[in-house]
UniProtKB/TrEMBL annotation, chains A, B, C, D:
NADP in keyword set: yes
Keyword flag Transmembrane helix: no
Protein family per UniProt: Belongs to the shaker potassium channel beta subunit family.
Upper classification of the organism: Bacteria, Pseudomonadati, Pseudomonadota, Betaproteobacteria, Burkholderiales
Name listed for the protein in its UniProt record: Aldo/keto reductase
InterPro entries listed in its UniProt record: K_chnl_volt-dep_bsu_KCNAB-rel, NAD(P)_OxRdtase_dom_sf, NADP_OxRdtase_dom
Pfam families membership: Aldo_ket_red
CDD domains from the UniProt entry: AKR_AKR6C1_2 (cd19143)
Every NADP-dependent oxidoreductase domain range: 16-321
Top-level division of the source organism's lineage: Bacteria
Keyword set, alphabetical order: NADP, Oxidoreductase
Amino acid sequence: MQYRRLGRSGLQVSELSLGSWVTYHNQVDTKGATEMLAAAFDAGVNFFDNAEVYAQGESEVVMGQAFKALKWNRLDYIVSSKFFWGLTRESNTTVNRKDTLNRKYLMQAVDGSLKRLGLDFIDLIYCHRPDPHTPIEETVRAMSDIITQGKALYWGTSEWSAADIRAAWEIAERHHLHKPVMEQPQYNLFHRKRVEQEYARLYEDTGLGLTTWSPLASGLLTGKYRDGVPAGSRASLESMGWMREQLQDRAKNAAVGQLAGIADELGCSLAQLAIAWINRNPRVSTVILGASQASQLHDNLGALAVTPKLTPEIVARIDAITQPLAS
Amino acid sequence: MQYRRLGRSGLQVSELSLGSWVTYHNQVDTKGATEMLAAAFDAGVNFFDNAEVYAQGESEVVMGQAFKALKWNRLDYIVSSKFFWGLTRESNTTVNRKDTLNRKYLMQAVDGSLKRLGLDFIDLIYCHRPDPHTPIEETVRAMSDIITQGKALYWGTSEWSAADIRAAWEIAERHHLHKPVMEQPQYNLFHRKRVEQEYARLYEDTGLGLTTWSPLASGLLTGKYRDGVPAGSRASLESMGWMREQLQDRAKNAAVGQLAGIADELGCSLAQLAIAWINRNPRVSTVILGASQASQLHDNLGALAVTPKLTPEIVARIDAITQPLAS
Amino acid sequence: MQYRRLGRSGLQVSELSLGSWVTYHNQVDTKGATEMLAAAFDAGVNFFDNAEVYAQGESEVVMGQAFKALKWNRLDYIVSSKFFWGLTRESNTTVNRKDTLNRKYLMQAVDGSLKRLGLDFIDLIYCHRPDPHTPIEETVRAMSDIITQGKALYWGTSEWSAADIRAAWEIAERHHLHKPVMEQPQYNLFHRKRVEQEYARLYEDTGLGLTTWSPLASGLLTGKYRDGVPAGSRASLESMGWMREQLQDRAKNAAVGQLAGIADELGCSLAQLAIAWINRNPRVSTVILGASQASQLHDNLGALAVTPKLTPEIVARIDAITQPLAS
Amino acid sequence: MQYRRLGRSGLQVSELSLGSWVTYHNQVDTKGATEMLAAAFDAGVNFFDNAEVYAQGESEVVMGQAFKALKWNRLDYIVSSKFFWGLTRESNTTVNRKDTLNRKYLMQAVDGSLKRLGLDFIDLIYCHRPDPHTPIEETVRAMSDIITQGKALYWGTSEWSAADIRAAWEIAERHHLHKPVMEQPQYNLFHRKRVEQEYARLYEDTGLGLTTWSPLASGLLTGKYRDGVPAGSRASLESMGWMREQLQDRAKNAAVGQLAGIADELGCSLAQLAIAWINRNPRVSTVILGASQASQLHDNLGALAVTPKLTPEIVARIDAITQPLAS
């Protein structure tokens, strides 16, 4: 495993990292999470991504229990949380607790996450989505104040527009506050424009780092939807109906079929190919893997061996197949 | 109940809110306050207005006991306090404790409020009146420091001139401090100029939000003083003599009579008409109701159904009746 | 007793205040100090001046014990301390503890004073003298940081040059720090130039307030040295030899004789005349009295009745007598 | 012993100071360290240099135990620590714990040092080396935040380039943060260019102070390597092989031979001559001695008597011998 700076910051994150594993209907319990964390850590993963909203806070509880059991030295791992959607189960109202980045929500949300995680501080905190109803200055000041209070070390955004990220950075610079350091965008072979075009100037101008999510496009890039939705897959679940259509997209599944040929040539799995392609982008600080099983995690980590095989010629073939279909 | 942003801030306050219920000679005890808070909360009210001076601190004590009994999630309600007049009963002197916004008073006053309310932080803190004897910079810095210390989330003013509010905002901007977010002015059919004219430029320039008080002009707009001061009314109390004259103002009570006709047309009470008219102004973030009885609160909340009925033609008729008499 | 703003700040200090009473060889014990504090407080005095160096910390210990016994409300009194000379008895070295305003000394000194005084914060902290060996910026930042930490409310200087006070004010303004608010200079009929000439522009430009010391010029203005040094007086003490010469200054004692005539005309004591003359200067926020006996305190407080009698004509006569001799 | 300001700061450090004594394979235990500290302190030394990396944290543990035993007043001594290399024994990974000045490492490292030293604050904290992989702004902000949190009093650098020191100073000035105060460079007769040339403008422009290390060039300047590596010396140790070559440099040992003649003339040891020569440079705030035995410490402190003997003529002779060989 190699490590990269989180954008222009001095923090080193593992190229591949682990996240979100308890998000899907609690497929993973504390014991399973602890084993998976241990396996990832042993493989060199040092960044474990989380969010308040994952499993409505339960993801943080489980991760916190795992940390307690694993007794790692606190310097050796990086934890994140993200704030925006709030915990809606614990209240009948959504006012000031859902879809917001106002000061009241942020100051209270971080305290809740610290408690659930059982930690004194969170390494990375994110604004999980943009909130058009809160001035960016209010959000910047709250995130910066959380860092000043010692409750977090770095802050960033997730799925913000380049314009909003730049606004946040400039406001922080002007008022001498802690500036945003990283963004967590979706990034994979079929979802590329934001990372490759919209953010282009930010890397140099503000030193933006990326922690990317959905490397396999919700599983589409594993090839398992090429012949329809298999029983037991995520897309077969009633609650995931909204996702089913795009996972069965004919053109994309056909493209995946072509990618499979390249994966065969390289002697790797489709997932490994897809992850290696992201890892190859030097703007990406870390690729967050979403594995829910140890076997899946091990397969995904195998992508590290594939990255060096991605010659310009191979990349050109991959791009020719996927770029026309990518958003 | 709908929610509005507190000015340009990201905080959402209910259109109607509840305040001051223990201000009038302790008409309401903790049990009564708890019931009223619960009723308001169930109706969607999320902002509960208070001040150090209300019943000389007892209003905060009662509200704190009610909060303890109600066990609401702290994210779901917004509490305020205000500082200026001080607690004069607890001392023989008024120096540095009355009519001041100096640093010594403010830093100690907020600690007292937190203790009486039994809270870790107050959502909104106000400078209850302007203090011409303290530099605005001293006050701005103290209010901002209280927020930095985590004892409050947002700060604002009450009954300040537009010039002073702007001065405070500019000083905070220049020194990178927390800026004032809201103002609490008197606003009703007979008291309009400050909100509609004096503050006009502040809404756009500084994003000022309003939490308005005295929607019924001390009861004048309920119509109960049309035939003199009824026994048992607030104005009948010895200590309220100063208020009696204006409540018996002939021209205003005649205007109230005309408004009663409009209320009848709309099938609502006079109080509901008066509240709905304030609620209709998009510059008003929330109308603070001053109910001391549950029945009164329920009647007032009925104003929400009246607001949509205030067509431009109806508003023109209301304005024709009241504007000539309004300060 | 009347109250004045401490310069342009919003803090109200009593025109006359009490200080230093345990500085002279522990003439006053805790019981005596408590009685004197109580008497002063009852007369309206709200400012009690102290310093780390007075009786090598014992003055703070005694005052702290008196506060504990008196149980005043913390809003109703103002306490000061001052830092520069350090506590030299507790160590064999003077390095970083004597004649310094460096960060190490200041940060530790304030903690010691808080402990001795038994308080959570000190209202006013002073740099007791200028320190040419520490950059003003280092001192400004330390004093401001102490306020930000909540350990003090306002800071100022004592016996600093106008140039240094202005430098401190400008550095604080530029770096958005807490600015100095007051200066504690010697000021009496025979020591006037700094207050009246050197600081002249600072009052308007920075809002400087004054808490003045030595109103009686070490007793010279009481007239008791007109016929030599009386047995038992301060100047008769061996350790006060350095002071004896100036207290026996012939020209000054002759001038005091002339002032005695004016005091007789006004029906007041010489001390009252001298104090009233200082009190008359609107630039003076408070005159710190140095009484060691209750009777002396009561006499000095009588100056308040004399101030209104100081007509322009009387003042002209006083000035004609003293100004030629004043430094 | 005399004291000098640490650069332009107000902190007074002893001309000679003591450091690192547990760095060499734990030659000194707590009892020995306590005795040495006591001897140095009695001789007037008030600065005790340390670093996280010395003996992998054990140096701080030992010094903390010695402080506890010695019960000095906290004002009377100055302790340092330095951060960069991290504690590598306590973990299998070096990521974010070695060769870094990122925020995560620094914030956690200072807490570890405080705990090992058993102190509430460290007087001086250093960036032990430059980290080209962390933006200077991130490091400046973290160091400044540590001071704001009260965990340290002053911060500086060790072995940074003039350009980086200036960048750090300017960033701190622009963002109103605590500026770096001192640098800890190697400085001795054979290693001079950085202190004498590279930093030349910094002394005036930023007030940089110096705490210099390696006064004897790892022992070369004691003359003990003139006839090869003696058994039992540091250079004879297997792990110090990298140092052996330069300690046996022929030209330098020949120069040391010539210096011995000057030392004889002055009636002092070679070590004393070398230390006195550094002490003579007014840009040097303090010379850190690396003694591991009491006798050695006493010999080194004898340099203070030699400094006055370094006439311009003597210095010219010393420079003629060493400057051509100096880096």
